[in-house]
Write a structure and sequence with these properties.
Largest sheet: 9 strands, antiparallel
Shape: globular
Number of strands: 22
Length: 431
């Protein structure tokens, strides 16, 4: 069948890689895609937010199945636009994607349905938020209510820092309208774990666990980014933790959304904190994580199209989800200066080293094609086109082996301004 992926980052490249392998896929489109996805799909220059143009293209090409991957279009109702035209679609409707699009909604949902999470209060007035902060103890967790590209969370160590954070989010509007409301949350300690789950609105199937590294610098220092690397599985996500979450988080959340008249079909991303008092939900996302997808999808044994169709059709209870008994580590190659200020347009060299290299993958996050500078021929080169450029993923029999393989593989690629963290998965060595 003809399949279309909406999106153009590393997550979408990982999805495209898996979809292209499926015997169900006869033709693959991506809007807008990127230089890596272009090797697997026909890329079309349509914005992920342009629902009318996306639907018109899908109709013109007689697309059978659409995968809406990023958070912004899901929150804006792009999946609804396809579904309302009778086009089978993977991804939650707008009224379900609100579980990510509004931190206040998700916190209220968890409170109502007794889903374990941190204590919190929500504010629409900056002065009221500051008055509340003055009654709390440091450190303080401030969350912009809306979508902020994974950067709308501030962890403040002092009251003055927290007050400045309120000013930044609610008054200066650093994150735009996402900061119209702010959630002030209890600070939790422990290991972070991400568990992505397939759902058809009734049944939920957890995938293998992963752990992301969000800070820009080694030792979890620097600013929050969209993610500098990840590994899977997490050695801290034990059978006991999994059992607790299956009973108290995953199914309970899907049931809660159904009870609210917001059936959730797609991928529910559960960000967890393994606190001394037990697992607690840090956040929910309404789609595959990026870069979590880059380590989880390569370990999936199932035909991803078959699983996604089951989510769309409401037949997920007929699927047995299986993952390889191995490990994966992804190291993000970024542009130096990310996430604040960085240059783009540098030629990327060494991508050919990964052709037919089994167990090694390069998922493009911020790349594009450009003409060669010397104009020597008509061929194009791949250049950097974002803060996060490439996700270098490697498999191994163990996490330690996968980590060593991933870092060795980063040496095969080079571009001016290349930057990466050197401690992705260091917790593995300490386990």
């Amino acid at each position: 069948m003809k399949i279309m992926i909406v999106g153009g980052g590393g997550r979408e490249h990982a999805i495209a890689w898996a979809v292209a392998k499926s015997p169900k896929c006869d033709k693959l489109y991506a809007a807008p895609g990127n230089a890596g996805i272009a090797e697997l799909a026909e890329c079309v220059d349509i914005s992920v937010m342009d629902a009318p143009a996306l639907v018109a293209f899908a109709k013109e090409k007689e697309v059978d199945f659409v995968i809406v991957a990023p958070d912004d279009p899901l929150a804006a109702g792009v999946a609804d636009a396809f579904l309302d035209e009778g086009i089978k679609t993977f991804g939650p409707r707008k009224n379900a994607a609100i579980i990510e699009a509004s931190k206040a909604f998700s916190k209220d949902l968890m409170k109502k349905y007794d889903i374990p999470s941190a204590a919190y209060e929500t504010f629409e007035d900056a002065d009221a938020a500051i008055a509340y902060l003055e009654t709390q103890e440091a450190p303080y967790v401030l969350k912009a209510d809306g979508l902020a590209l994974g950067k709308g969370v501030l962890i403040c160590q002092t009251l003055d820092e927290a007050k400045a954070g309120i000013q930044e989010i609610m008054v200066d509007k650093k994150f735009g309208d996402a900061g119209n409301k702010v959630v002030i949350e209890e600070f939790m300690t422990g290991r972070e774990v991400s568990v992505l789950c397939f759902s058809d609105g009734k049944t939920i199937l957890p995938m293998t666990s992963a752990q992301d590294h969000k800070r820009a610098g080694d030792g979890d220092t620097g600013l929050n980014t969209g993610g500098m690397g990840t590994f899977s599985p997490s050695p801290f996500y034990t059978d006991e933790v999994a059992k607790f979450c299956e009973e108290n988080v995953y199914q309970r959340t899907i049931d809660a959304m159904a009870s609210e008249g917001r059936p959730f079909k797609g991928v529910l991303f559960c960000g967890l904190m393994l606190t001394p008092k037990g697992p607690r939900v840090l956040e929910f996302n309404a789609r595959f994580g990026d870069p979590e997808a880059q380590v989880v999808i390569p370990r999936l044994k199932n035909d991803i199209v078959e699983v996604m169709e089951a989510c769309a059709d409401g037949t997920l209870d007929q699927i047995s989800l299986e993952f390889e008994d191995n490990a994966a580590v992804c190291v993000m190659l970024a542009s130096d200066g990310y996430p604040v200020s960085y240059k783009k347009g540098f030629e990327i060299k060494g991508l050919e080293n990964f052709k037919d290299k089994e167990g090694y993958y390069v998922f493009h996050s911020g790349t594009k094609f450009a003409d060669k500078e010397d104009g020597s021929d008509d061929s194009k080169v791949v250049v950097t086109n974002g803060g996060r450029v490439l996700g270098v993923t490697a498999l191994g029999n163990t996490l330690v082996e996968a980590r060593a393989n991933a870092y060795e593989a980063t040496k095969l690629i080079d571009f001016d301004n290349k930057y990466m963290r050197n401690d992705i998965g260091k917790a593995i060595d300490e386990k």
